[in-house]
Amino acid sequence: DVSNMERVGDAFQANSVAFHPDGKTFLTAGYIRLWRWEVAGNAPPRTYETATEKRSTLVVDPNRKNVLLGVEEGTAKLWDANFSVRSEFADSDGFTAFYFSPDGRIAATNNRSNYYLRFWRTESGQIIGRLEESISQLQFSPDSQAFAALKGGNAVYIYDSQTVKLARTLRGHTQNITQIRFTRDGKLLISTGADKTVKVWDWRTGELLKTLAGLTAAPTSLALSPDSSTVAVAANDGNITLWEAATGTLKQSWSAGKIPHLVLAFSPDSKTLATATREAKTQLWDAATGQLRKTLAGDASQDFITSLEFSPDGQGLVLREEYQGRYTVKLWNLNSGQLVRRWQDGLEVRDISFSTDGKALLIAADLQSGASNARDIATKIYATATGELLADVIGFADGSWVVVTPDGLFDGVPASWVRLNWRFGATAVAPVEAFFNEFYYPGLLAELLSGKRPVAPRNLAQIDRRRPEIELRYADESASETVAARSVKLTLKVGEEPSAPSRPGGGGSGARDVRLFHNGALVKVFRGDALKGQKSVTLEASVSIVAGENRFTAYAFNRDNVKSDDATLLLRGDESLARKGIAYVLVIGLNTYANPQFNLRYAVADAQLFGAEFQQQQSRLAQFAEVKITPLFDAQATKSSILRQLANLAGQAQPEDAVIVFYAGHGVAAQNQFYLIPHDLGFMGRREAV
User: Fold this and answer.
1) Kindly report the CA angle at 528 between 525 and 531, in degrees rounded to 5?
2) Which residue has better confidence, 158 or 668?
3) Which of 52, 327, 425, 491 is least surrounded by CB atoms within 10 angstroms?
4) Burial 358-383 (b: 16+ CB within 10 A, else e)
């Protein structure tokens, strides 16, 4: 079986991961870049430089759709929904925490050295105020007009967020306040204290409305239902108590067992309360009656629970634990009550985020290699319903990226393919790119996040991984390093990897479909079996040389379509070879078809306009020595005519030239192919049938 992936080269460490509120993108923040991954479509991810190698934190504003990225060294950038930098602010001491006001107009940053707070206008990046006191908790009111702060004592401090001036102080607790929460409707503020009390405040007036009775021990966890109707508190003696937020009426109180440090979370519909603790199972309770609905399957934990969260659709529950540098993530399917994934790789979990529809869970982890201590990364994507690992999403420091599924499908840019190896057993490895022919899958990430589950065409572990060997040489080895000839001959020595002991009588790897590239452009293909029963062969190819660098690359495939390593050759063309290129433009427009059902009105005009505009712009830019436009309109644009013109262009074009084909007419997509429909389409039925 395929054991795991190995890294070749340095990848960035993913510190934060978050879905954008629009649900169309998700974001990962590393030490060097912010990455924006598209959920739909085949667009490659966009990257934004953070200009730092320090740890970063990502905060998304849910209403105004801003993105705040702050880094330890003390700079923060704010991007708008189009990822243009709106503002930038800095603190020489660095940041440890970041907060957005709900309307997105104010950002607060926590100083790393003394925990003092600075407040910034996100539109301009200007400081609007400071709190030069150590702040342990901060909560913005839902209307963004105020914020509440704790300073480690028995009072809550309410500030005007527009001026950062103290508006009032809420006093009533006799011991330290442990937690504060605004209700979602913004009418009330709830506080819990070590004095075993829960207090409800009208924070706008400072009036203490109610002290909620019923606690028998100090509270350890506070949760408010999403509909703002219920306050839930877990106490240090294992009791759970629920009150009506508006009236202070005790709704329910029950014991979850003599176990402290309960963590609470309400479901999105406010009907279920989840509890979790060390040395106990995770349980679901009816928030109205206090009845135990379900005890979730899974092992008890000795770790400290750091978070408990429902998925947005209420069908999944994720719990994160930490103890002495060991991190564990547990994911439950609440329909079945089964623990569908227990993730514990001995690696630091940086961040967790559900997709906006709740169907996917993203985990950003610091994957460090023990041998090299290089930061290896990944954002792992799991299916919430099953816990199945869907893909690893990896971005490298140079901007290259790759998405890989457990069964071998991958997408990304070629520069990243050589950086990942599949490991087969104890010692055998093969790069991801070796399986390009069958396992490269453009748009892979978008399909996974849309709910599709593309399947690899074959079992990766059962493929013959032996690869052909290629040597690429300049035939005239006696020539100088600089080539003055316009055309030269290259030789490609192609051999197969011999039969392995584990494959008695199986023969060698074979070698087929040898391909030769010149500065990235395919210039020659030797199709089919290259060896034809021999152990090795030498192939020849005549190629054109341009002034300056000429980089040639060749590779082949074995019998199982596994790609060989690249063979490369670098030649430098003499300056006497310099020539200005010609632009060959083939413009095709089809208003009329042999089948009138397919007729169009503006296709010819579009093609004519493109040709004229290109000619005009090139006369101004002068990038080419000449622009040659070949038009094919209506009845001229038959299948044979189009193929003939393409063949002519293939014979005429030199490496410095450009070939541009513009087509305006009907087309049809079938699987991974897109077909242009010529004038003589060969179908006389109704257009809707195609």
Assistant:
1) 100
2) 158
3) 425
4) bbbbbbbbbbbeeeeeebbbbbbbbb
| Phi, psi at 224, each rounded to 5° | -115, 140
The pLDDT of residue 571 is 94
H or E segment and range at residue 47 = strand 46-49
The answer to whether 366 and 350 have CB atoms below 8 angstroms apart is yes
For residues 496 and 508, is the Cβ–Cβ distance under 8 A? yes
| Cβ neighbours for 620, distance < 8 A, ≥ 6 positions apart | none
Collect all residues with Cβ–Cβ distance below 8 Å to 129 and sequence separation of at least 6: 118, 119, 163, 164, 165
- Could you report the per-residue pLDDT of 100-143, keeping only the tens digit for each? 788 878 878 776 555 678 888 877 667 888 888 888 889 999 99
Local structure of 87: helix, strand or coil: strand
d(CA 209, CA 221): 21
Q: Is 552 left (phi over 0), alpha (psi -120 to 50) or beta?
A: beta
Cβ-defined contacts of 325-329 (< 8 Å, 24+): 327/365, 328/301, 328/303, 329/363
Coil vs helix vs strand at 688: helix
pTM over 0.70: no
Measured distance CA(206)–CA(189) in Å, rounded = 10
- Residue ranges of the domains in the chain? 469-577, 582-689
Strands 67-71 and 75-79: antiparallel
**Residue 10 · residue 375 · CB < 8 Å:** yes
* Structure tokens given for 617: 């712009």
State the Cα–Cα distance between residues 8 and 10, nearest whole angstrom. Answer: 7
The average confidence (pLDDT) of the chain is 82
- Host H or E run for residue 605: helix 603-621
Helix (H) or strand (E) holding 650: helix 639-652
Contact in structure between 628 and 582 (CB atoms under 8 Å): yes
Measured CA to CA, the distance from residue 588 to residue 593 in angstroms comes to 13
Q: Which CATH number fits domain 582-689: 3.40.50.970, 3.40.50.300, 3.40.50.1460, 3.90.1010.20?
A: 3.40.50.1460
Give the C-alpha distances (Å, rounded to integers) separating 44 from 36, 343, 360. Answer: 9, 28, 20
Pinpoint the alpha helices (H) of 435-480: 436-439, 444-449
Cα–Cα nearest to 330, from 291, 274, 286: 274
Closest to 378 measured CA to CA, from 37, 30, 1, 68: 30
Residues 296 and 282 sit within 8 Å (Cβ to Cβ): yes
The secondary structure element, H or E, covering residue 395 is strand 389-395
Strand 626-633 and strand 582-589: pairing? parallel
* Dist. CA 69–CA 62, nearest whole Å: 15
Q: Distances from the Cα of 662 to the Cαs of 439, 603, 668, in angstroms?
A: 31, 11, 16
Q: Give the C-alpha distances (Å, rounded to integers) separating 202 from 147, 170, 645.
A: 13, 9, 79
Residue 305: CB atoms within 10 A of its CB come to 22
pLDDT value, residue 327:
78
Nearest to 377 by CA among 411, 402, 344: 402
For 501, half-sphere exposure in the C-beta direction (CA atoms, 13 angstrom radius) is 0
Q: Hunting for tokens 């790759």 — which residue is that?
A: 402
Q: Give the class (CATH, top level) of 469-577.
A: mainly beta
Question: Which of 511, 510, 518 lies closest to 554, judged by CA?
Answer: 518
pLDDT tens for each residue of 641-678: 999 999 999 989 999 999 999 999 999 887 668 899 99
